[in-house]
């Protein structure tokens, strides 16, 4: 096994015990990147000289016994919405081509303090306003979408060109590409990870979180990210050690299995894989409980009713000054936001309040809800619609956001875990949704499931 193939947890232990040096790990990842990046286009920019310099410094610190923690010497990618001092934050857009950050975002500063090493900035669907990241190719099949908007981050982790990465999630943008590329993605509780220095799509829906190869890896990254930051008004005063235990016993935990919404208009192979994974959770001691998802008829309208006007407000000046610099799909959405009445936005906020209350009651009865992350695996690049067996036609973006949106509207945490592949070899994801600040339970359950499965191999390009 080459160093770039190691999970974060395994690489961290090898560095700690001096069986692997940060220099060897970074060199291996950069060599892998040089080989596969031309086919995948996961990165906006790569910083090999800075990465190698940081790796040499980390090597000296480890040799001298100056140990910072499990992220020390670990190569990472950051979605190009996340500020790093002196580096461009382009949001994968011509609008931001000349922007350079003066200071680190909170998450970049915390990861640097933990010893993680930046490999480069990863592509996003322009300004995170889409679910495909069209400039990036799926790690399993170059002819298919990477998923979005954190497509570059998910592809980099899946292909071995970053040991972990950060994404953002406003309507599924961590979980969707993670599911489509066969990696783990965590959207934390709203406010758990500060967003200062991260380009916004929708203030009341935005989250920052890790994309990793294993659930334990996600727990290690979350521990470095979480904690209050007064510069983010939504930031929560909580943090902790999220690493799950080694055992697989889930006795006493109740898993809600939706009887509505989450299995409606879902590809049969996706449904079968997720139901098999749920059966595995039951075999580990969890009790399955059928649940009814509340207020489902309002989910799509609430998600778009919140996101569209907030995004348009953020882009108001540049949309009027340089509209021609936006990609057509994003410009149309931003212009549509200017036509939405204020009353629609207020009604969406009221619906969100009612939905949060209804979900809180639902999560009184179960510890976790298990469901598909997305209803269909990665579609062909350029495909605009999905046609379901009953003849219903759904836009690709609507399909990919549909099962992810409830966690953004309500702010509850959601973890996407790979649960197999379809007959075309494309990954399938299951999401576990929990109570606010219920990340330890989600990570425990996801890790327990993961331990029953064969180790997943990196995508071959």
UniProtKB/TrEMBL annotation:
GO terms for molecular function: catalytic activity. InterPro entries: Amidase, Amidase_CS, Amidase_dom, AS_sf. It comes from the Bacteria. Signal peptide: none annotated. Residues 24-443 form the Amidase domain. Gene3D superfamilies: Amidase signature (AS) domain (3.90.1300.10). Pfam families: Amidase. Coiled coil: none annotated. This is Amidase.
């Amino acid at each position: 096994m080459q160093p770039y193939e190691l999970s974060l947890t395994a690489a961290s232990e090898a560095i700690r015990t001096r069986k692997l040096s940060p220099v060897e790990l970074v060199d291996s990842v950069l060599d892998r990147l040089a080989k596969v990046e031309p086919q995948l286009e996961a990165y906006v920019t790569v910083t090999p000289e800075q990465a190698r310099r940081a790796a040499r410094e980390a090597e000296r610190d480890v040799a001298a016994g100056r140990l910072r923690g499990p992220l020390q010497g670990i190569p990472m990618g950051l979605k190009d919405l996340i500020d790093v001092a002196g580096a461009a934050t382009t949001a994968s857009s011509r609008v931001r081509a000349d922007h350079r950050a003066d200071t680190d975002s909170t998450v970049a500063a915390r990861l640097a303090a933990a010893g993680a090493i930046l490999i480069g900035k990863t592509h996003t669907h322009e300004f995170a306003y889409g679910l495909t990241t069209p400039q990036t190719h799926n790690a399993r099949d170059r002819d298919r979408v990477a998923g979005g908007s954190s497509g570059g981050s998910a592809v980099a982790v899946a292909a071995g060109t970053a040991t972990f990465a950060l994404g953002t999630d406003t309507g599924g943008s961590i979980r969707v590409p993670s599911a489509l590329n066969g990696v783990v993605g965590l959207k934390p509780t709203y406010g758990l990870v500060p967003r200062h220095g991260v380009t916004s799509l929708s203030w009341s829906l935005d989250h920052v979180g890790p994309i990793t190869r294993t659930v334990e890896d996600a727990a290690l990254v979350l521990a470095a990210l979480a904690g209050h930051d007064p510069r983010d008004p939504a930031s929560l005063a909580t943090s902790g050690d999220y690493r799950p235990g080694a055992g697989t016993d889930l006795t006493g935990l109740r898993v809600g299995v939706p009887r509505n919404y989450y299995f409606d208009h879902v590809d049969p192979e996706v449904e079968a894989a997720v139901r098999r994974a749920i059966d595995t959770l039951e075999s580990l001691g969890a009790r399955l409980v059928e649940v009814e998802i509340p207020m489902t008829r309002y989910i799509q309208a609430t998600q778009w009713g919140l996101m569209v006007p907030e995004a348009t407000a953020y882009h108001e000046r540049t949309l009027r000054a340089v509209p021609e610099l936006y990609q057509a799909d994003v410009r149309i959405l931003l212009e549509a936001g200017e036509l939405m009445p204020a009353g629609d936005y207020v009604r969406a906020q009221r619906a969100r309040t009612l939905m949060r209350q209804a979900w809180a009651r639902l999560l009184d009865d179960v510890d976790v809800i298990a469901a598909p992350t997305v209803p269909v695996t990665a579609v062909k690049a350029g495909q605009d619609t999905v046609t379901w067996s009953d003849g219903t036609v759904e836009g690709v973006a609507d399909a990919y956001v549909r099962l992810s949106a409830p966690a953004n509207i309500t702010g509850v945490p959601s973890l996407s875990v790979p649960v197999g592949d379809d007959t075309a070899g494309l990954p399938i994801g299951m999401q576990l949704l929990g109570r606010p600040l219920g990340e330890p339970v989600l990570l425990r359950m996801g890790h327990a499931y993961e331990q029953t499965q064969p180790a997943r191999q990196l995508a071959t390009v």
